[in-house]
Amino acid sequence: MKFSDYKKLLKTHELRVTDCRIDVLDKFHHSSYAMSFKDLEEDLAEYDRVTLYRTLHSFIDKGLLHRIPGDEGFASYALCPQECGNHGHHHDHVHFKCKLCGHIECLPDFSIPKVEVPEYEINEQSLVLNGVCKICKKSIP
Amino acid sequence: MKFSDYKKLLKTHELRVTDCRIDVLDKFHHSSYAMSFKDLEEDLAEYDRVTLYRTLHSFIDKGLLHRIPGDEGFASYALCPQECGNHGHHHDHVHFKCKLCGHIECLPDFSIPKVEVPEYEINEQSLVLNGVCKICKKSIP
DNA sequence: TCATTTATGCAACTAAATTGCATTTGAATT
DNA sequence: AATTCAAATGCAATTTAGTTGCATAAATGA
User: Fold this and answer.
1) Where is A35: in which H helix or E strand?
2) pLDDT tens per residue across span B4-36
3) Taking the CB of residue A76, how many other CB atoms lie within 10 A of it?
């Protein structure tokens, strides 16, 4: 994806085009894993931490990113599927967390099996798998 | 559950019997929802924050409680099913978070559907449903 | 009841994330 | 291109969740 594409993407999500947003967007598009705030901060040290946090928030609000709560006390963030927009997120994919490399991936090809709970109304489902990812599995006999 | 039962429960989980542990255990046994650290702290203000945190940790280590990472940046804790012990957790039940009352419940009668991902090794699964709980649903037409 | 181990309380600290405010920048309009 | 105004940024300070070190107190087992 090139600059003009990012620009378009931001505009269609009601977001102003700024250097920081372009760079953050670019980072996410080049990462196959969900990224923590720290990952982002290390690579984009030229921007203030607060600006990066606010960029994440605006992206989440407008449906560009989704937040994956982590069990180590901090969250990770990943690109949304195209269905997400300014009017809420519509996620259905599974997240995988590797206990060896620590990476969190979205598995867009795996959708979450529906669970019906009588008398409850279910709006969203989030399934996080924990184990050993494809790459790490190859490196251990 | 009475004092002697809590005492027994602690002993079988290799934990010393202390006032704080009894009170924390009692709190969890009387709550139908998962509790955040804040919930606990409010009700058991007589104990130091650090002691409460350490109580939670020891309970998690010994298989009495499990931790449910929350999407607002803090975790909740709930009693484990009996299968959990000193040698790891064996959870299979679904968690439900109500967007109206904010409560998180364990749904012990609903187990997580198995998802197979080729080339990946899956060790744990966590499914969190988001929506409106039974009680809140009744109070809205 | 004594000795040993473990738990507690306090203070200080770390790390994640947020808020307020002055300044700068984006983009729509003239 | 210059003007304008809302929105984005950077900085400092603050909040909140959770942790660590250490002296004291309490629980267990002999």
Assistant:
1) strand A35-36
2) 999 999 999 999 999 999 999 999 999 999 999
3) 24
Please tell me if residue B69 touches chain A, with a CB cutoff of 8 Å.
yes
Going by C-alpha positions, the residue among A53, A89, A101, A74 that lies closest to residue B69 is A74
Residue-by-residue DSSP string for A43-106: HTTTS-HHHHHHHHHHHHHTTSEEEE--TTS--EEEEPPTT-BTTB----EEEEEETTT--EEE
Q: Does the distance separating the beta carbons of A126 and B120 come in below 8 Å?
A: no
Q: Which of B121, B130, B131 sits opposite A131 (nearest CB)?
A: B121
pLDDT per position as a tens digit, A57-100: 999 999 999 998 888 878 899 998 877 777 777 778 899 999 99
Name the helix (H) or strand (E) containing A14: none
